[in-house]
Amino acid sequence: xxxxxxxxxxxxxxxxxxxxxxxxxxxxxxxxxxxxxxxxxxxxxxxxxxxxxxxxxxxxxxxxxxxxxxxxxxxxxxxxxxxxxxxxxxxxxxxxxxxxxxxxxxxxxxxxxxx
Length: 115
Fold this sequence. Notes:
This protein is α+β, with helices and mostly antiparallel strands. Helix content is about 35%, strand content about 30%. α3 (about 35-50) runs antiparallel to α4.
């Protein structure tokens, strides 16, 4: 069902779908929260990321879509197989449609064994 929800025509959902089909792990939360709460949190994170020169794929659009949605959403995450990317996805309260999706680069610390 998650694959069907990600079958949109935007770059982020296409990348999330490709990651999922490539064996990515995912989780979808059973709880819902007001979309505006998520929009506010990610608007602040976007500002901080931009100060560091990072432009996450689709995050600005995700903030806009969550604000426009103005109803509760449920969320989920998809972690790419190579652990480089996390996709944040928000769905309608009943889980029947994708509201917004963004791709964030994961910050993986190297261990002494990797150096």
